[in-house]
Amino acid sequence: MIYLDNAATTIHKPPCVVRAVTEALTSLGNASRGAHEGALATNRLVYRTRRKLASFFGCPESEKVIFTCNSTEALNIAICGTLHEGDHVITTVLEHNSVLRPLYRMQNERGVSLGFVPADKQGCIDYADFERMIRPQTRAIVCTHASNLTGNMLDIRRIGRIAKEHKLLFIVDASQTAGAVPIDMVQMGISLLCFTGHKSMMGPQGTGGLCINGDIEIEPLKTGGSGVQSFLTEQPREYPTRLEAGTLNGHGIAGLSAAVDFISQTGIDVIRAHEQELARTFYRLITGIPDIHIYGDHTSDERSPIVALNIADLDSAIVADELAYSYGIATRAGAHCAPLMHKALGTQEQGAVRFSFGFYNTIGECEAAAEALRQIADRRVL
Amino acid sequence: MIYLDNAATTIHKPPCVVRAVTEALTSLGNASRGAHEGALATNRLVYRTRRKLASFFGCPESEKVIFTCNSTEALNIAICGTLHEGDHVITTVLEHNSVLRPLYRMQNERGVSLGFVPADKQGCIDYADFERMIRPQTRAIVCTHASNLTGNMLDIRRIGRIAKEHKLLFIVDASQTAGAVPIDMVQMGISLLCFTGHKSMMGPQGTGGLCINGDIEIEPLKTGGSGVQSFLTEQPREYPTRLEAGTLNGHGIAGLSAAVDFISQTGIDVIRAHEQELARTFYRLITGIPDIHIYGDHTSDERSPIVALNIADLDSAIVADELAYSYGIATRAGAHCAPLMHKALGTQEQGAVRFSFGFYNTIGECEAAAEALRQIADRRVL
């Protein structure tokens, strides 16, 4: 199978990640539960991984790296844990449902009002819209670092400056960029960074996190055992315990730790250059194909390695099925949990076929995928 | 190291569990995201594991097996997702903070009132107290299947009958019993069963679940991507999607699936008999030691394989440290996230040293632990 669905998850993990999880499964105790070697080993692993991730993302304090099971959980904590009755939030139409649904929920349950920065048919926004939308009650900007549909990246540094100028919380969904693009929370002015371990980080499923930059009060989503301070009737207020209840996924964290090592040692710039080359090569090979419509702004270098497209008016699911079953090429069709992006592009009915490239893909695979697409477009008999 | 902290987590996993996770790490896509082989393989794994767990716990519908990252998450969903303003809930002093803290939170945020069935110095309750405490506003009984401190088990079937008679929701924390004791939700009258994968199930950390028996409305804790129905602004209402947002821990679920197979093939009765023999042997070997005070009701056969104790008035942490560093025996001291149980036993200051046995422990290890305890008690010079 030629796997081009890395935006959903990466199937090919670095060998060190697999080894780390396997070793952890045979040795790890429960972090913060007990003072014996098994538990201490896990404590050390968890502590070291917090530090690594803090360094990796430019988060000033490692105890403000909170482990979650995925970025959806991190976004739920960030959004539901900070917004108050009557707040106004600015977001965009690029967002994934992991941002949209918690925001709609806050709208329903807490009277939070939402403003959506629109996008044109290329999926591009106008940065001036952020400032236009700001009101006295505006509390936060919540947006994605890159669209999981078009691959268009937002200039987070620029939005961060707007947020800072207006004293707004800046919550960033880095699901598509963590591990693929360098991120520095302080330089980019990010208040809360939400990431997942199993996509470009190339770590295990069941891992992710929320990084907190500065003194931000976040109410917990879940409460429960904290290992220490058992006699408090509330979750302890100190980070990270405040936002972590119950046993951590130590086995997954072991894999995530190895994944950070791998990316750091390989060099995130090396990874990025390779992934961009794959996406550009594929794009170049298919632009000439008649009846192919490609979405997104491919004039920019600042993109995720994603190419989303349709063939004439063919249902995207039919094209994706053909790619999978006749050519062994894995992509993703449909709505991609990004309903407003599809609305902006005009693809609600048709969906789109998304090709997303990862570190372990090759130029040869891009060529094979382009050729398959060409044949499908030529035939248009499925 | 002699590992006797299985109530915190099991360190020794069945080889098939380790293999399953390793294989999954090299092949799994994202469940419900995409129609290619990688995603479909994960879908099938997830579907099959729901069915296995439904069968394992006597849950009538496999789509009502919800995956969580641990039992704390399952309890938060169960408790925060069902209770309404002004409800009354009956619970016990045996509970872990993963039950207590969500209940206290409901008390604070939703005016839920709580009644606590007390326990005597053996950690035993009077079942008549449940009925005495029932009021018109009583909505639910929430309790543990077994105390993580004393190992005393509650007669869940009996409490389930009380709940059924009074039309109450019955939420059970099976953290200490899932995989160690046969559980049948229908026979026991359990409405919501909360379990974790990494203790007696001998699966990976980062896994667990909530099983729903019947038509129960549960509001989600987290909202986000659901893979299907992208254009809904709310989380889809169908189970399991309603209560699962974002990418599942497919790698962990692969391990959990193998763990269920292992327990089923070995025979849960075989596992139980072995663990009970370990605990009884240890108990018998230490009852004669002067100055040892053992907690819990050891006259009953229906117990978790736990023995909690103190030596005279020695701080439990000092004893546990001595066991760990001079004898290589891992136990857990302190408050065990069970503040009310310690209050009932009178051990808030001292804590207790908890020995908890698992499938891979041996009688020889029990003997070594008993001997170590004897020496420490004899010496009492640390």
If you had to describe this structure to a student in words, what would you say it looks like?
The structure is a homodimer of 382-residue chains. With 382 residues, the first copy, chain A, is α/β, with parallel strands linked by helices. Chain A has 2 domains: 2-10 and 267-379, Aspartate Aminotransferase, domain 1, CATH 3.90.1150.10; 15-266, Aspartate Aminotransferase, domain 2 (3-Layer(aba) Sandwich), CATH 3.40.640. Helices cover 39% and strands 14% of the residues of chain A. Chain A is built from 12 helices and 12 strands. Chain A has helices at residues 15-25, 37-57, 71-82, 97-110, 128-133, 156-165, 185-188, 250-266, 268-286, 316-327, 339-345, 363-379, and strands spanning 2-3, 65-68, 88-92, 113-117, 138-144, 169-173, 192-196, 208-212, 292-295, 306-311, 329-330, 353-356. In chain A, the strands form 3 sheets. In chain A, strands 2-8-7-6-5-3-4 form a 7-stranded mixed beta sheet, sandwiched between helices. In chain A, helix 7 links the parallel strand 6 and strand 7. In chain A, helix 2 (37-57) crosses helix 8. Chains A and B meet through helix 1, helix 2, helix 3, helix 4 and helix 8 of A and helix 1, helix 2, helix 3, helix 4 and helix 8 of B.
